[in-house]
Amino acid sequence: MQKTIYKVLWHQKTIDDFRNLSLDIAIKIKQKVEKYLSLSPETLGKKLISKEIMLYRYRYGDYRIIYKIEHNPSTITVLRIGHRKNIYD
């Protein structure tokens, strides 16, 4: 059985979020999402309950990556990236 690799899409807000991170952290987060999270986004992330859509969060150290999953086509849309203290504000 072949495993589905999800295509990663970056919401415009994540570009602003990356600008607020140090360059080394931003690069590590981008690599982690594209090479690791894209292989199994449902099992590696934790579900968040939202009124509008089902969101997931992935933890990378003190940072959180908020994303949604689409199965047709197989995509992950990264919505926000930020420090755990203020990502849920």
How does this structure look, described?
This protein is α+β, with helices and mostly antiparallel strands and 89 residues long. The chain has a single domain, classed as YaeB-like fold (2-Layer Sandwich). It contains three helices and five strands. The chain has helices at residues 12-19, 23-35, 41-44; strands at 7-10, 46-48, 55-60, 63-71, 74-83. A five-stranded mixed beta sheet has the order 1-5-4-3-2. Strand 2 and strand 3 (55-60) form a beta hairpin. The protein is globular. The mean pLDDT is 90.
Notable traits:
89 residues, alpha+beta, YaeB-like fold, 5-stranded mixed β-sheet, 3 helices, 5 strands
Please tell me the CATH architecture by its name.
Answer: 2-Layer Sandwich
Q: How many discrete domains?
A: 1
Rg from Cα = 13 Å
Strand content: 35-45%
What are the segments in which pLDDT stays under 50 over at least 5 consecutive residues?
none
> What is the overall pLDDT average?
90
Output the CATH topology: YaeB-like fold
What is the CATH first-level class name? Alpha Beta
Overall geometric form: globular
- Number of E strands: 5
**Spatial order of the strands in the main sheet?**
1-5-4-3-2
Structural class: alpha+beta
End-to-end Cα distance, whole Å, is 40 Å
CATH-defined superfamily = RelE-like
Count every helix, treating DSSP H or I runs of 4 or more residues as helices: 3
The helix content is 25-40%
Major beta sheet, specifics? Answer: 5 strands, mixed
What's the helix-strand series?
A: EHHHEEEE
